[in-house]
Amino acid sequence: MPSLPSSSELSSSRMTRRALLGCLGVAGLVGGGLLWNNRPNRWRSGFTVHLLPPDAPSGASPFLIGLQWVVQAHLSTLAPACVVTVAHPEIPLPANRRAFQLQLRPSREGDTLSLSFRWRRAGEAWHEVQGAPKPPAQAMAAFLAALPEAFQPDGEARLMPTAPELAWELFDLAAIHRAFFTTKGLRSRLEGLVARAPECATAWCLFGRAAYLELVERRDWIAEDRVLAETCLNKTLAILPGLPFAAGELSQMLSDFGENGAALKVLARAIRIHPNSEVVLRRLAYSARNAGLLEVASRALLVREAWMGRLEGIENTFLDLGDTKRFEEGILNQARDKGWGPSQRFYLGYAALVRGNPEEALRCLREARGEWSEARFGRIGFALWTFLEGRTQESLTALEKLVQQHLTIRTPDGEFILKLAELMALHGKVNRALDLATRAASHGFGCVQWYEQSPLLAPIRSFLRFQALLFTLRERQTAQADRFPPRAFGF
Fold first, then answer.
1. pLDDT in tens, 14-25
2. How many Å apart are CA 286 and CA 15, to the nearest integer?
3. Which of 56, 207, 271, 464 is the most exposed place for a label (fewest CB within 10 A)?
4. What single-letter DSSP state applies at residue 24?
């Protein structure tokens, strides 16, 4: 574990934080406002990009990972594009859409970047484009100009600094998807980058992302840490309104804190500018589902599916609507593309159990072959697997341990807490299940339809305490529905 800082170091660090937060000034807000005024209300036509990983026989280097992220930020911001990261070229492009596959083939020569790439449309041969060695900002501009669809230039360096040394630092930092405390020097490097490139939106977005991960992964964070994460992400959106990565991170954080209304407000602004963004549509489905706005959530998923060309991911909206077939389809597509993990294993078993087929649920969970991770879905998958195998006490012990660990997290995710309530109800622990269901609601999961229809909550549904909870949730959901009808998101 990292050593704890001294009191003098803490005091100095907090002064630095206040100074940093204080520097978020008028220039960014004015620039962001001007950019907002110059953006179209809706980009009426659009296209899909399937972004493939670069060729890297020995594994992707940090440079390639970071460059891929920065390129994706450009592609999703500077055109009405739905940018989808895919693992291999066999994944089909969407039918009846303008679309192309894209694969970077970059190289570095000193401080210059050769941003070569190849692209193709469905049924066509690959087109190879050789990039000349240039400073990174010029290489990116040449790359965008050579693509088969039109992209606006990043003339004000909002997405990448013009100074080569700062661009390379941005690539390096973009590859580090971790909290501050897990990587020595990460915070100071991010502070240095935003100080030297204060109008670079992606730099602020990376700072905000790392600050948000600090809240998720570190249990002893303080209120000032949350202020830092929100401030950095809001600064990003002031520089580049609607930037999909920033809007997605900020809305996810707000929903995880149970503030679905604030999250939906961020997303309503973002989708006005980027109606085809895969990230914005996915995050909208999440926040709307948490708020109980299933019509908004399902429409976001339908639009996302049309642009992507298929359904992909663990989308609980379909479960809440009773469509387990669509729910399982998304999981299977994701697993075929990106591989199996504890969350996919758990949710396939969970969906079978919801359908009333515990034998199939057990078969799905057994396919993990006992290789459950220490992550929360690994732990909850293990608890459900052992319960279905009849190892009740082992399951209950694992479940109770997970509950205790999860309740110490201060960004708790109400939807996951309700899963814990459902498993407690399966075990017949009625009072414990009621406590957890109430806690799930207090932490932002307000989908009345799932509270009312989940077969796993049947043992506690008749209790007056649960009925009172439903009454409160209905009122809250109605208020959110009035504030955020489908038309607020262009649906």
1. 444 444 545 444
2. 36
3. 464
4. -
